[in-house]
Amino acid sequence: MTIREITAALGAEICQDEFEDSEVTGAYTSDLLSDVIANATDSGALITIQAHKNTVAVAALVNVSVIIICNSRPLPPDMLEAAKNEGVAVIRTTENQFTVSGKIWEMLHK
Questions:
Q1: 72's torsion region: left (phi>0), alpha (psi -120 to 50) or beta?
Q2: Residue 97, pLDDT score
Q3: pTM beyond 0.85
Q4: Where does 3-108 sit in CATH, by number?
């Protein structure tokens, strides 16, 4: 599924829309950025509540294509600017990480 297809399926909001609408091949859920560096999948989604520019730096480092911010966390402008510069999509949902993780798993395993 593409980033935009996942966004629509989740009913999420696109907060940083300057990105390539690439295929998402996996996902990783974590709020510990060192854990993301060690375990996130290439061309995947990062499901988190960590809404700051360091999250974008980690996503770019491990080639995550979309950051999914849960629980309607506020997004600082410097995070969105960093994501724009890196070409990383940022979407936001009202749902929690557990729910989003389950939905993404189901979408990717159909």
A1: left
A2: 98
A3: yes
A4: 3.40.1390.20
